[in-house]
């Protein structure tokens, strides 16, 4: 007689929910994923993921967590066309402190369109016989009491029913109604914080020039933090099938363009450097412009709640929604799913007393670095918080700024900063004695005079010509140490 597995219900069928389902299945549960939208059969857009049209990447810290949950996932992604980008070897980036050099690899990112990434992961997760998908199904609320959640009420095709569960996971994203549901059980809303930079994004997909469709570097012009161009920035991300996905950024009173003609002009004239605009001159637009204005960092802190019900966990964007410009959402989701799995395994299964509280604390630890990185930068935008940056915010920002300046001319510091950004290491790594000393000394090499594109890359991007106002300057080798 086969063993009866405990049942879990995961609310939300995006990447966070699917990875949470996989985590619970590998920990011995039978899992039902409840998703409001109809999920596509291929790498196609879906209504509940409007941010999919913008730049996405899976940092190496998240990619390793994904592989842990789904062995063979990275190979499947590669076979589907997802590109592995070594950092900072294949990145051309202008920071507030100047151009970064292209140092030997420390971390990496997996770069592709979000629809493709989601589809590959969805296919791998749903191949697990222990996981069932109920799409076109809406979650209405929790069942149980303030002491313990026993399931969730759902509705599909106008018919409601209750799904009983030993564990319910809310991964419904920014639109989560968890606080409302908890109030319905007589519980106080968890503490929450919001840091809203006011940035908005406009993105468009391009066909890269023929010579630049293979291993062209990521290009990033970081948003300005002062002056007339406050908040303006952009990213060019080479993705699958020889295409470039370009996201332009605008501030609270300076939104990026919503039309094709304005998109190219903005990239040429409004950013701190015209490189992205110059590159797009020779690329073919494939889509219209997609605009998103929902970019606030929002976090709830259930781990701090004095009362928390058994059998209920929040993760993904429902727990911690991050400004997309930093690209941490998917990586945090993967790491949170691993943390959930490990708690379930250590505690002996879904029904263990205190499991939900311990899982919530473990998941909170996985979001801390990404939250600190995002809010530590965004809190300085006007109106981001009611009170503005604290003294601690200003001290931390001054130190991080010094590190980033040092990273423009010190490979050791650049690689350590990259390790933290990629979630390979926690933020405490930046406080190691050698990092403090390096920050005090500053850059070991002089600043670059222009973007570190090689002549071959410039020629390829220009279809045989030469891109850029800096083309006559000395080429910069992409593996400087």
Write structural notes for this entry.
By secondary structure, the chain is an alpha+beta fold. Among the domains are: 7-56 and 113-195 and 296-376, FAD/NAD(P)-binding domain, CATH 3.50.50.60; 200-292, Alpha-Beta Plaits. Helices cover 32% and strands 22% of the residues. It has 13 helices and 22 strands. Strands 5, 6, 14, 15, 16, 17, 18 and 19 form an eight-stranded mixed beta sheet that branches. It has a five-stranded parallel beta sheet with strand order 8-2-1-12-21. Strands 3-7-4 form a three-stranded antiparallel beta sheet. Helix 1 (15-26) runs parallel beside helix 4 (114-126) and helix 10 packs across helix 12. The longest helix has 24 residues, at 355-378. The radius of gyration is 23 Å and the shape is globular. It starts with 6 loop residues before the first strand and ends in a 20-residue tail after the last helix. Residues 469-481 have low confidence and may be disordered.
Could you give the topology of this structure?
Blueprint: E1 7-11, H1 15-26, E2 30-34, E3 57-59, H2 60-69, H3 73-79, E4 83-87, E5 91-95, E6 98-99, E7 107-111, H4 114-126, E8 131-134, E9 138-144, E10 149-156, E11 159-164, E12 167-170, H5 178-184, E13 191-195, E14 200-207, E15 218-221, E16 233-239, E17 243-250, H6 260-269, H7 275-280, E18 284-285, E19 290-292, E20 297-301, E21 312-314, E22 320-321, H8 329-347, H9 355-378, H10 391-407, H11 411-421, H12 433-441, H13 455-461
Parallel strand pairs: 1-2, 1-12, 2-8, 5-15, 12-21
Antiparallel strand pairs: 3-7, 4-7, 5-6, 9-10, 10-11, 13-20, 14-17, 14-18, 14-19, 15-16, 16-17, 20-22
């Amino acid at each position: 007689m086969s063993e009866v597995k405990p049942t879990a219900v995961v609310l939300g069928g995006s990447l966070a929910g699917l990875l949470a389902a996989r985590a619970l299945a590998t920990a011995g549960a039978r899992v039902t994923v409840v998703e409001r939208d109809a999920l596509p059969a291929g790498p196609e857009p879906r209504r509940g993921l409007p941010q999919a049209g913008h730049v996405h990447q899976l940092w190496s810290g998240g990619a390793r967590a994904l592989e842990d949950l789904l062995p063979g996932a990275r190979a499947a992604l590669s076979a589907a066309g997802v590109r592995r980008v070594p950092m900072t070897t294949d990145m051309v980036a202008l920071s507030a402190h100047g151009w970064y050099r292209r140092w030997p690899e420390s971390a990496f990112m997996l770069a592709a369109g979000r629809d493709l990434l989601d589809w590959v992961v969805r296919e791998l997760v749903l191949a697990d016989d222990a996981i069932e998908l109920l799409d076109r199904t809406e979650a209405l609320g929790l069942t149980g009491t303030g002491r313990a959640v026993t399931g969730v009420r759902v509705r599909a095709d106008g018919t409601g029913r209750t799904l009983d569960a030993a564990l319910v996971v809310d991964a419904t994203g920014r639109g989560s109604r968890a606080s409302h549901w908890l109030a319905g059980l007589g519980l106080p809303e968890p503490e929450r914080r919001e840091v809203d930079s006011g940035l908005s994004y406009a993105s468009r997909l391009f066909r890269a020039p023929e010579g630049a469709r293979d291993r062209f570097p990521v290009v990033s012009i970081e948003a300005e933090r002062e002056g007339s161009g406050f908040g303006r920035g952009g990213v060019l991300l080479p993705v699958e099938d020889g295409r470039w996905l370009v996201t332009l950024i605008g501030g609270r009173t300076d939104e990026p363009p919503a039309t094709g003609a304005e998109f190219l002009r903005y990239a040429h004239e409004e950013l701190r450097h015209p490189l992205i605009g110059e590159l797009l001159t020779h690329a073919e637009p494939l889509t219209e412009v997609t605009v998103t204005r929902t970019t606030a960092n929002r976090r709830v802190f259930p781990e701090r709640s004095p009362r928390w019900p058994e059998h209920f966990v929040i993760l993904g964007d429902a727990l911690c929604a991050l400004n997309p410009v930093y690209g941490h959402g998917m990586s945090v989701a993967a790491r949170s799913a691993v943390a959930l799995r490990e708690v379930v395994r250590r505690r002996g299964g879904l029904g263990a007393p205190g499991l939900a509280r311990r899982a919530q604390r473990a998941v909170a630890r996985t979001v801390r670095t990404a939250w600190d990185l995002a809010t530590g930068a965004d809190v300085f935008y006007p109106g981001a918080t009611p009170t503005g940056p604290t003294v601690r915010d200003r001290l931390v920002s001054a130190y991080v700024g010094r590190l980033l300046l040092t990273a423009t001319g010190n490979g050791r510091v650049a690689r350590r900063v990259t390790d933290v950004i990629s979630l390979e290491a926690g933020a405490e790594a930046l406080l190691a004695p050698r990092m403090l000393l390096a920050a005090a000394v500053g850059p070991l090499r002089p600043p670059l005079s222009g973007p570190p594109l090689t002549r071959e890359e410039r020629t390829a991007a220009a279809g045989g010509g030469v891109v850029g106002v800096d083309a006559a300057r000395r080429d910069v080798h992409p593996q400087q140490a």
